[in-house]
Every structure is written in C-alpha cells, then in structure tokens.
C-alpha cells in the first residue's frame, strides 16, 4: 500500500472521531434546520466584479502549540483590501475552528469567504455554512469522484459554492462535469511538474469555462506563473504568516498583480 492512501485513511479516521462528539451535542438534523433558515450567502458575482487579477490570501493558524508572528486579527487587518479570503476552519491539525470564519465575517462583511477543511463528512459542510462561508473546498484526492459529486450537490443545496482542489489534471474533467465555477490548482508533494508552465499551456483548453481558476503554491516565484496563465494566485498562508513582514508582502503582491497587464 502506498503512503498517500495510508495517510488519507488515518486522516479520515481522526476527523470522524472528532466529529462524533459534536454530533452528540448537535445532531445533524438540527444543524440542517438552522442552515435552511439562514439568509443566502454572497454571490460569486460579487467577487467577479473585482479586478481580473487579485491575490487570494490564505489565512491559516497552524498548530496551537506554535507561535506565529501575526494573530488572527492582524491577518484580517492585513487582508482588508482583498475581495476574497480562504480560511482554514478545522481544528484537528491547524488549531482553527468555524468560529474563526464567523469572526472574519464580522470584520469583513463584503469579503467572499472560502472555507477550507479536510472535508470527509457532510456534517463539516453544514458547519461551514453555519459559520457564514460563501464557498467550501473539496478534494477529489481525499473523497474520490463519487463522494465529491455527492458533496458538491449537498453544498449547492445548502447554498454554498463548491470549489474543487485539483491536485492532478485528470480531475479537471470532473469539475467540468459538475459545472463548477471555481477550481483551485494545487501541486501535491512530488507532483509539482504537473503544473509547470509547459503543462499549463496544454491545460488551457480544459481551464476555459471556469469563472475562477486559482493557483495555490508555497513558492512566491509561482505567482508569476499564475499571472502568465491568467490564474488568480492563492498564496499559502502558513508560509506567508511566518514572515516578519507579512502585511508588507501582501501589499506589495497586491500592487504588483493590480498593475500587471
């Protein structure tokens, strides 16, 4: 058995164990009743009215035992001009929680908020909706094709925009089948060559038709690659927020992207 399936199996088991206690406190049907009564989230069109190219900061409070240079409030303040944010909301591995998403909404009412998590259970989709997310990220590598399709349908039913985290180009066809508006391209460990400039040229036709295509990378140099192919950069938060001058970096990147032809 390869390393990746073992990791995914272990990850899924850990998350499901952590959800068991929550399900006892708040049963699934109670969460769903609350979701049905909520007002509609921000439409994707709100984000599309913004400039064609923007930085999409990823706010991530890593393990609570690690000290970060910037608190959550400072990260939000540094991203005030961003029309869209991605936030880790799970608590098993990154020290976050859906409460962080609600806090972000209080500070930035008109910002399009994308909830990130290791989604392996429908309960987590409800949690993201209740935390006032506008979109939620699913990984076909984690869920498989069938569950990805089912979860995307559930997200739409609960008025969340589904976003696919694409590690391999073959999953772009799944995104097209589901008629999604958003995809995020992200190189998995050991597979960075899949998203190099020459390969992205080949995938141009596959990327046509998506309203938004993000490129996620731990390397700042990859932002240039994203610009070349008219993708919106998705900058990995854990790397960014370890920098002493994170707010200055964000401002400089936003200015560079805004002034690019």
- Any idea what the CATH superfamily is called? Aldolase class I
Number of helical regions:
13
Any guess at the CATH architecture? Answer: Alpha-Beta Barrel
Give the overall silhouette: globular
Q: Sketch the major β-sheet.
A: 8 strands, parallel, barrel
- Give the integer mean of the pLDDT values: 81
Name of the level-1 CATH class: Alpha Beta
CATH topology: TIM Barrel
Secondary structure elements and pairings:
Blueprint (H helix, E strand, L loop, with lengths): L2 H23 L2 H9 L7 H5 L7 E4 L12 H7 L5 E5 L9 H10 L4 E5 L5 H9 L4 E4 L1 H4 L1 H13 L3 E6 L5 H6 L4 E5 L10 H11 L4 E6 L4 H7 L3 E4 L1 H4 L5 H14 L2
Parallel strand pairs: 1-2, 1-8, 2-3, 3-4, 4-5, 5-6, 6-7, 7-8
Helix pairs in contact: 2-6
Question: Can you summarize this structure?
Answer:
Helices cover 47% and strands 15% of the residues. By secondary structure, the chain is of the alpha/beta class.
Outline the structure in words.
The chain has 261 residues and is of the alpha/beta class. The protein has a single domain, classed as Aldolase class I (TIM Barrel). The chain is built from 13 helices and 8 strands. It starts with a helix and ends with a helix.
Question: What keywords describe this structure?
Answer:
261 residues, alpha/beta, 8-stranded parallel barrel, 8 strands, 15% strand
